[in-house]
Amino acid sequence: MKLSELLKFDPSLKNAKNSEWPEEILAISALDALLPNSFIFIKNGKFLEKFLPHMEKALYLKLGIVIDEKFYSMMSADYKVKVDSLAWIITSPNIALSLTTLSKPFYDLKMKGMNTQVDGRQMGTTEIDPSARISQNVFIGEHVKIGANVEILSGSTILPHVTIGDNTKIYPNVTIYPFTTIGKNCRFHSGVVIGSDGFGYTFHQGQHCKIWHMGGVIIHDGVEIGSNSSVDMGTFSPTVIGPGCIIDNLVQIAHNVKLGRGCVMCGQSGIAGSAVLEDFVVLGGRAAIGPDSHIGMGTQVAGGAKVNESAVWPAGSKLGGHPARDLKEWMKGFAYVRKMSLKHNKE
Hints:
Layout: H1 3-9, E1 14-15, E2 27-28, E3 38-42, H2 45-51, H3 55-60, E4 64-68, H4 69-73, H5 77-84, E5 89-92, H6 95-111, H7 120-123, E6 127-128, E7 133-134, E8 139-140, E9 145-146, E10 151-152, E11 157-158, E12 163-164, E13 169-170, E14 175-176, E15 180-182, E16 187-188, E17 193-196, E18 201-204, E19 207-210, E20 217-219, E21 224-225, E22 230-232, E23 239-241, E24 246-247, E25 252-253, E26 258-259, E27 264-265, E28 270-271, E29 276-277, E30 282-283, E31 288-289, E32 294-295, E33 300-301, E34 306-307, E35 312-313, E36 318-320, E37 325-326, H8 327-346
Parallel strand pairs: 2-3, 3-4, 4-5, 6-9, 7-10, 8-11, 9-12, 10-13, 11-14, 12-15, 13-16, 14-17, 15-20, 16-21, 17-22, 20-23, 21-24, 22-25, 23-26, 24-27, 25-28, 26-29, 27-30, 28-31, 29-32, 30-33, 31-34, 32-35, 33-36
Antiparallel strand pairs: 1-5, 18-19, 36-37
């Protein structure tokens, strides 16, 4: 769509350069997936600092920005020179609401014309290896690619634009949403849902306004996911599950989460949006990771522990409690409270 069309979707937006961008705007980007002729949202200085190292690539890709109006007006001269070099700049008085509003037309553009009613095998748009074994009562959408020796059992639904790698097994009643890529040698147990919408809303004038998700999911080789677990699709870039991850039953993985190699998530554990787990992190049962947190390689989080939002823990940490802290510290504190409680009861 043209820049002028974009402005019509949200009348509060202002064209900071006061010029029409002659090329089509094709998508919304994320920092980990900058796309040609797209744009990115910048809320504050923290996000701008993360974006600036990508500036050369952004210029090459003809990237524009939607930026918080107040933040842009107060920006230092050095930052403003860099930002003003971008293809186009739009300011917003409410960046969260603008993200919500502008996500819808780009979602509609990506999903436009997608057929979710007629099986892709009837339409002749699937690529299924002859060795794949597909049970009765399986729906396979258009433009699905299924590799060698894949097995899909009854009641599963594979929606359009999904790729499934060799030797992967999908048990009954699994649902895989569009724009999901699955590697080789994976196993998904009954009731697993891959690629459902992330839990993203903006509260405005008494309503929860939906952020439309379209980023898809990437699951690497050798991943096993237990029954009734869910992996949400990313907002504008994929949620990623690294090679060899083992995910138990009843686990929640939110939008834009990044799991490294060989992570383990025990039953009923959960990870909130945009959190990062480096290689070989282990979450005990019912452990929870707050949004935007970063958990270092080999960290172990005890069952029931709660890691706060935006927390950063170094490699090899051992965490427990709520809010999560060093496990030995938490155990000493718990022992002290118990000791004082027993002393008080005796008195």
